[in-house]
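quick one if you have a minute, typing this from the bus. theres a chain ive been looking at and ive put its sequence and its fold in C-alpha cell form underneath. please have a look and point out which stretches look like helix strand or loop to you. anything you notice is useful, everything is just below.

***
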Amino acid sequence: MEKKVLPIAFIIMLFAIPYCATQSFLVSYVNARQISVTVSLFFPAYAAVLLLLRVLLRSLFDSRPFSFFMILSSCSALIGIILLGVMNRNITMLLAAAFMAGGYGMMCSACQSKAILLAGEGKRGLANSTYYIGLDLGMSLGPMLGGVLYGKVAFRCFIRCLP
C-alpha cells in the first residue's frame, strides 16, 4: 500500500459504502414502499449521466483542486440519496441516478486521479492498487452494513422517517 494514498482510499470507501448499499437494496426498497417505478432505468441513466459528466468536466480534473470535487460530489451524493428517499415516480428516480453519478461516480475519477498524482512517478501502480483497496472495501461494506440493518431493523422504521 502507498501510505500517501491511504486518505484518498478512505474517502472513496466512504463514498462507495452508501452508493453500494443503496444499489444493493434498491429493488427491495421500491417493493417495500410499493412505488411504481422502473428500477431497471436507474443504472443506464446513472451510466449515461456519468459518461456525460466525465466528458464535459474532463478539463476540470486538472485545473480544480481536489476539495472542489469533494464538496461538489458530497452535495450531489446527498441530494441523490434524498431523492431516492422521497421518490414516487420515474423522474425522481432518474434525477437520483443523475445526482448519484455526480456524487459517487465523479468522486471515483477525482480520487483515482489524486491517488496517482500523490504517489508520483514510479509508484502509480501502487497508488492505483491502494485506491482500489478503498473502493473494494466500500463496495463490500455497503451491502454488508445495509444487510445487517435490513436484517436487524424493521424496514418500516426507515420508511417512517421518510417524507
